[in-house]
Design a protein that fits this description.
single chain; alpha+beta; 7-stranded antiparallel β-sheet; 3-stranded antiparallel β-sheet; 4 helices; globular
Length: about 180
């Protein structure tokens, strides 16, 4: 392990699965720990796929994707999407989101995006997504990754938090803005 990998493994991250549908309709997906919010106005998020990824070209070609934020009890789902090759969706329950990208059952939340831009990030790409829809699906502790191991936080939600099956873009962004401006 390089010094950079060793030191940066001290930073705890959440885990998400990025999903899309290739031109023929076949679902593709990959586990990432590089997901982040970028901007509220316009609503942008990013993730950083390795240039060597065999899944990234399918997601990029689709032009739209979903971010599925994993819960602490979804380690096996994470491992399934962290490998190269095989049918990662075999036996996985999902439904198509508004943009066609697979929304995985049981995740904490999902974010549907149109691919806005792809920037150079050295041995990774930096994929910017414009948020088109988002939803919190259930309460629970997130799946975390720290020093090459999975971990978890307590499942307690902040006061007043209520997961919704779906949320309108405008009300969700307005709520996020009001919280961030406080």
């Amino acid at each position: 392990m390089s010094d950079m990998q060793s030191v940066l493994s001290s930073f705890c991250t959440g885990v998400a699965v990025i999903t899309a549908r290739e031109a023929g309709g076949r679902p593709v997906g990959m586990a990432v720990q590089s997901f982040s919010s970028v901007s509220l106005d316009p609503p942008l998020v990013c993730f950083c796929p390795a240039r060597t990824s065999t899944t990234w070209p399918g997601i990029q070609a689709a032009g739209a994707f979903a971010v599925n934020i994993l819960a602490a009890d979804q380690r096996d789902l994470c491992r399934r999407f962290a490998v190269t090759g095989g049918d990662k969706f075999a036996g996985v329950a999902w439904r198509a989101g508004g943009n066609g990208a697979p929304l995985l059952d049981g995740v904490l939340a999902s974010v549907a995006c149109d691919l806005e831009a792809v920037l150079d990030g050295g041995d990774h790409a930096i994929a910017l997504g414009r948020v088109t829809a988002l939803a919190a699906h259930r309460e629970g502790a997130p799946l975390l990754y720290f020093r090459r191991s999975y971990g978890r936080l307590p499942a307690a939600a902040p006061p007043g938090f209520r997961p919704a099956a779906s949320a309108s873009m405008s009300s969700s962004i307005a709520a996020a803005r009001s919280r961030s401006e406080a």
